[in-house]
Amino acid sequence: MTADTASSSSPAGSTGDSADAPRESIPDPLADVHPPSGRLSIDVPSLTRFLDGPHAEVREEVRKRLVDHADLLAEADDLGKDDYRDRVRDVVVELAGTGATAMGLPKEYGGGGDIGASIAAFETLAFGDLSVLTKVGVQFGLFGGAILQLGTKAHHDRWIADIASGRLLGCFAMTESGHGSNVADIETTAVYDPTTEEFVLTTPHDAARKDYIGNAARHGELAVVFAQLEVAGEQHGVHAIVVPIRVDGEPAPGVRIEDCGTKLGLNGVDNGRLWFDGVRVPRANMLDRFASVSPEGIYSSDIESQGRRFFTMLGTLVQGRVSVGGAGINAAKVAMTVAVKYADRRRQFEAGEEGTEQLLLDYGMHQRRLLPLLARTYALHFAQEVVAADLHEVFSSPDADEKSRKLLESRAAGTKALGTWHATRVIQECREACGGAGYLAENRFAALKADTDVFTTFEGDNHVLLQLVAKGLLTDYSSGFADMDQFGMVRFVAGMAVDTVLEKTNVHKLLERIKDALPGGSEDDWDSEAGLLDPDYQLAMLRFREEHMIGGVARRIKGQVDRGGNGGDVFSSVQDHVIATARAHVERLVLEAFVDKLETMEEGDEKVALHLLCDLHALSTIEADRAWFMEHGRLTVQRSKAITAEVNVLCRKVRPIAGDLVDAFAVPRELLRAESLIG
Amino acid sequence: MTADTASSSSPAGSTGDSADAPRESIPDPLADVHPPSGRLSIDVPSLTRFLDGPHAEVREEVRKRLVDHADLLAEADDLGKDDYRDRVRDVVVELAGTGATAMGLPKEYGGGGDIGASIAAFETLAFGDLSVLTKVGVQFGLFGGAILQLGTKAHHDRWIADIASGRLLGCFAMTESGHGSNVADIETTAVYDPTTEEFVLTTPHDAARKDYIGNAARHGELAVVFAQLEVAGEQHGVHAIVVPIRVDGEPAPGVRIEDCGTKLGLNGVDNGRLWFDGVRVPRANMLDRFASVSPEGIYSSDIESQGRRFFTMLGTLVQGRVSVGGAGINAAKVAMTVAVKYADRRRQFEAGEEGTEQLLLDYGMHQRRLLPLLARTYALHFAQEVVAADLHEVFSSPDADEKSRKLLESRAAGTKALGTWHATRVIQECREACGGAGYLAENRFAALKADTDVFTTFEGDNHVLLQLVAKGLLTDYSSGFADMDQFGMVRFVAGMAVDTVLEKTNVHKLLERIKDALPGGSEDDWDSEAGLLDPDYQLAMLRFREEHMIGGVARRIKGQVDRGGNGGDVFSSVQDHVIATARAHVERLVLEAFVDKLETMEEGDEKVALHLLCDLHALSTIEADRAWFMEHGRLTVQRSKAITAEVNVLCRKVRPIAGDLVDAFAVPRELLRAESLIG
């Protein structure tokens, strides 16, 4: 054995600490087992207001409305499929009546005219039944959003008021069975017939049926259908056309509708499939903000490139991704609240002195399972706040420049991926941490787990989204983003050889910031000199990783292409590196959001508490990838172990206030649905 | 930057490879992108026979029976709760008629008299509807097993034949709402009344109700009830008594039954809650293999210690854990089959040359997501084969010594934990890898995911089970196992100070084996000299980790207790280390099982293929914990990167035969229920 392994008492893999290692570098976890005498006193309502941010009133209003419908959570267990769907529809229409669902639509049509408020409202809906949330997203975000963003005044005048009120329910029909992520290549056709001034919509074969379309199986009357437009024999790429799919409850002529049937979750949403057999709709039904067809059949658009036009259209729909990411993060809050409160009252084993039982949350392992996830939930909350604010800014100013839009799209994609993966992980861990009781439908985990599972793949598969993020990083958002097939990483990779990629990226800018911020100041010692709890150190580590990965992946692509590899093979060989790079980038943004937010906070115990959480989030993030940092010379073995030990110490410090920290999420008790777990 | 980070092209976190690093140590992943010219030719039926092992005929028979009932998979989506339960009951009774379910019960009562065969049959049931599997487990394993193992001939004569035929359905009523894992402290009481020669069963308060009890809500007539026995005013600990709970479909007098209602999954099983209000049953209903009460009220038992007696009883029920572990591993095979076959036919993106699209499984990231999990599924299959064989041996020889029993209990606990966590992870990853289609109930993932989720917490919470494994390691199974409260790690920890723990454990035996096996032979160079694909090297790494962790955790406990820490605090501070140690131990057993099994295989392409899988499993296991190995001086940065690169190369080598490798699981096509995914 080496000297190191012989002398040190081993940490337990990724979760151990090192109480018996030298005192100067590694804190003693037992030193903090008991709450410090100066235990933090958290003003929960004040922390809630801080978390609720600029749209606190909207969030509070939605909480109240959800409590009105809290019974739905239990009823959903026993309602048949159609009854559940109708019940959800009724709740959605009722919510629409209160104004809670159409905050993103213009005021002149009965909406709220405030995109930021609409995201806040939607996120808060995640505290309630998630079929309601999803149906709201389909109706007001996707369907209403498409008509608003891709249509022009005539479309708005004709439909938006009825959409906002819930009188007119509709679908967003983009995805086809044969084309999940690759939407530029969908195969439904819309051929313009100048003799009747109509578009003729056709589903050429079964793989081109529209699939998984919300509102299609039962309630939708209209659908925004994405189809390949052909005018006078010429192909113009994907465009959006409004098609009536259901009249008086029956499928419209030429439209075939099939029910997707029971799903793992979200069974209150009526997903369906659509086929079009020569369905004719008037010329005016084409959403013509970015391109139009004249009565006599002349196609025109201000955007010349077909690909660019399509991605301009898609770009306007970024709100859907921001919404789903936020929904995931807020669903995670529900699970965290139940699991932390359960662990803070449940006594399972006899421990400590005879007759006194420790609470579950007093156990090191239980803290390790829950508290870094709690810290990450806070971090993602603040990251989501940034992306929601960006969305509001870009979409509230019609002249937002293209780079802002691209940065927003990238940030939305990355936050959606990390937020929804976090939801899946948190809900699973919290379910297990509540034992068998978590499996019963009478506790909320069953529904939370089943309903959120698809978040990782809808509104863009998370892996595909991270590829999009990586593409932006590799071009510094300066070119090729909108012009490219969104999913054509392969062509992109093949094309990279012609440029000197490294010079186009911002690979050395972040390192400059590291050197400026940290005490050592030189390239070689900033990491070993800084304190583990210094946010500049924590950020420097994540910035270093991101930079190094961007440079590395660019060099690998270039090297392999230069050596004659074809695009497909090269991309296949670097794909995991590409995705890891994007993830490293988003992780850095998340930590920055948390650190920045802390600086805005007034001094007090709440700030101290959030500092603990931020440290816990930062160090557990570094710890999770400590192998990489060691492999790249940024962590010594001693320092790596010290980080693990510090994470344990932070868990113990957070433990006494963990109940307050979940209470601050302010998930109404009626919605927790965890009677048998937390009373 | 250090020299290392400046010169090497970075691997992508935990998933990257290192194509541009020096050639001598790191393979070029592109070298193996295309199938080798000598592509392996796998004889799938022959590989299936190898996997099916000694009970191949039983497995084949159960496959056929499941195909007979394949319609149930789809029907389950639309049946109401009670109809689904009744349908599952009917299928279970029909299966009982074929002899497929009672292979573990004695021949003289219509069973198969073969424990190994009964495990093989049960595992195979995991290919079908998992409510059927679970109800079979409740009826024949838990209920029938308890009467068989805890009862004596009179009980067997009275009940086993009816149980084996499915004429008499019953419950295993141990868990209480207030005591999930801590079953020694359940609170239901059974007081002996010598005047009537009856036991009087009482639920003293709501937290002592029996909870989550399968067969209780609708079908069960009898229940084996675990209760605190009181005879003549004296407490004797937990004993099992057979109680009629339902007569002609109505609750028996004094018994209150409540339905647990809808669950996240397994809704074909009628879980319920039971309360007893002074229910009287004859003295003969006590299962008296380990203790009895005479008519006049004299308690006697051959086992003096109350704790030891209880854990002897529990020990006889180890078959349940072996069964659940095997069910998890086999459910994972279903998911792997669908996801690999889907990825082997689905073309998503345009790639490669113009017009040719690569298959999903040609992408590096997709290989990384699926193929190490496929390798691990094989590894766990062979580990399960070992534990099933151990079970058969111990339970077929009435004189098996106590150490064999303890080793079996430990191995069963560990394999159950890793096998069920694997199922959860595999099913989630495979669901996501099939995109939105994986979310529809019409594909099998929805049911698989929902139904298997509880496997990680039932038949023993996985974390608690790993604590049990650790306890065995720390005492070398030589003492304190059966005598202790199964969950009393805290008392155990406090007691450890009195002994010199290290000398009791086998901490240095494994290291001896490392030194014998590897070329360097010395303590310092065995790891750097050996080839990455040498199984002795791979095993040495896992053995080193296990030993080091056992020693470390023992030293930490002893050190902290010696410094005056109380049991609860010390245990809380080492709990994660304890669990990581147990996991390291089980990981070593799993790899050993795979390596040992390979040695028994005839030469041929199938053996070459399984060698690739074994290497992939071993190296991805080491890679997952490479931070630990670096921290403990057993991996250099270069070698750590080389392992990551080798894992990528192995993925590419396994890719062409991945379809054959899942076909070898021989999950009948009718049971895959993935029409829209794989046709």
TrEMBL record, chains A, B:
Localization in the cell: Peroxisome
Give the Gene3D superfamilies listed for this entry: Acyl-CoA dehydrogenase/oxidase, N-terminal domain, Butyryl-CoA Dehydrogenase, subunit A, domain 2, Butyryl-CoA Dehydrogenase, subunit A, domain 3
Q: Region Disordered: start and end of each range?
A: 1-40
The answer to keyword Lipid metabolism applying to this record is yes
Q: Which residues form the Acyl-CoA oxidase C-terminal domain?
A: 535-673
Q: Name one GO biological process term.
A: lipid homeostasis
Q: Where is the Acyl-CoA oxidase C-alpha1 domain?
A: 315-474
Question: Which keywords belong to this entry?
Answer: FAD, Fatty acid metabolism, Flavoprotein, Lipid metabolism, Oxidoreductase, Peroxisome
**Cofactor(s) named in the record:** FAD
**Domain Acyl-CoA dehydrogenase/oxidase N-terminal as annotated: residue spans:** 55-166
E.C. number: 1.3.3.6
Look up the domain of life of the source: Bacteria
- UniProt lists compositionally biased (Low complexity) regions at 1-19
Q: What Pfam families does this protein's entry cite?
A: ACOX (PF01756), ACOX_C_alpha1 (PF22924), Acyl-CoA_dh_M (PF02770), Acyl-CoA_dh_N (PF02771)
Coarsely, its chief localization is: other
Of which family is this protein a member?
Belongs to the acyl-CoA oxidase family.
Q: What is this protein called?
A: acyl-CoA oxidase
List the top taxonomic levels of the source.
Bacteria, Bacillati, Actinomycetota, Actinomycetes, Propionibacteriales
